[in-house]
Structures are given as structure tokens and as C-alpha cells.
């Protein structure tokens, strides 16, 4: 099996069997974002306690890349500090822009399957939507905590 086929299978598995799909009932911080270009949307919920993401879930509509990326992202940041999570947001963004990044730094190896998306510029926004929602949510939470 070629590496491309393996990556497609990983993406389809996360799309068809998403991790952390659903709602958090109480105490969650929610961020809603959409990609008007293609119609993808995400509602990301997270609980941040003592500077750490203790729970994160998502609901959304979109293509396989968008929803698989959300599944992978939630799996990789659960339990991390907000600063570690923001580092991953930056790392993922740089990977999507075509930079060589150390994919070993991602806690979930499946994320490497999304590296090929950079070759399809129209799909980059799909892959980064959940990550942008995470970054926005963390920043909003930080500013809300500063008040």
C-alpha cells in the first residue's frame, strides 16, 4: 500500500469515526467558526482548567478533510496546556503553508496524514478550520480570564 493510500485511509477513518464529536454539557467555552468558501462549519467546545485543556469536543458540517482534522486536533490537544496547544496550532499552520516541520512534535501521529493537503490550496482552509477555532478559543479564554 502506498503512503498516499495509507494517509487517505487515516483521514477517512477520522471522518467516518470521529473522536470527540459531541457536546460538553456544562462549563465549556464555545467557539463557532465557518469557512464561507466551501461551507464547512465547526462548533468547538473546550474546558480549560488551571491552564490545561481538560476536555474538548466538536460538532460541525463539512468535508472529510475538515472533520477529520477536527477529530485529530481534539485528540492531540486534550490534556495539553494552552501554551502547548497554541504551539501546535502554529506548527500545523506552518505545515499547511508548506514549511518543513517536525511532525514528530504532534502528539498524534495521524496528523501527518494531513501534510499532503498543502498541495491542494483550496483545501487548506478546510484542514485549518478546527485549528483556527482552537487558537481563537484559547485567546478569547485568556482575555476573558484576564478581566
From TrEMBL:
Gene3D superfamilies in alphabetical order: 3.90.1010.10
Domain NIF system FeS cluster assembly NifU N-terminal span(s) in chain numbering: 7-126
Annotated signal peptide: none
Database matches in Pfam families: NifU_N
Biological-process GO terms, alphabetical: iron-sulfur cluster assembly
Top-rank taxon: Bacteria
GO MF: iron ion binding; iron-sulfur cluster binding
Assigned protein family: Belongs to the NifU family.
Protein name: SUF system NifU family Fe-S cluster assembly protein
Amino acid at each position: 500500500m502506498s503512503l498516499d493510500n495509507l494517509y487517505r485511509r487515516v483521514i477517512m477513518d477520522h471522518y467516518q469515526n470521529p473522536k470527540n464529536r459531541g457536546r460538553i454539557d456544562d462549563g465549556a467555552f464555545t467557539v463557532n467558526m465557518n469557512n464561507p468558501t466551501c461551507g464547512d462549519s465547526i462548533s468547538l467546545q473546550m474546558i480549560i482548567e488551571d491552564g490545561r485543556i481538560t476536555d474538548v469536543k466538536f460538532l460541525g458540517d463539512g468535508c472529510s478533510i475538515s472533520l477529520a482534522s477536527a477529530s485529530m486536533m481534539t485528540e492531540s490537544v486534550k490534556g495539553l496546556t494552552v501554551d502547548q496547544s497554541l504551539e501546535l496550532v502554529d506548527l500545523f499552520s506552518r505545515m499547511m503553508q508548506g514549511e518543513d516541520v517536525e511532525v514528530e512534535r504532534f502528539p498524534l501521529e495521524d496528523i501527518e496524514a494531513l501534510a499532503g493537503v498543502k498541495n491542494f490550496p483550496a483545501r487548506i482552509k478546510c484542514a485549518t478550520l478546527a485549528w483556527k477555532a482552537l487558537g481563537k478559543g484559547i485567546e478569547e479564554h485568556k482575555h476573558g480570564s484576564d478581566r
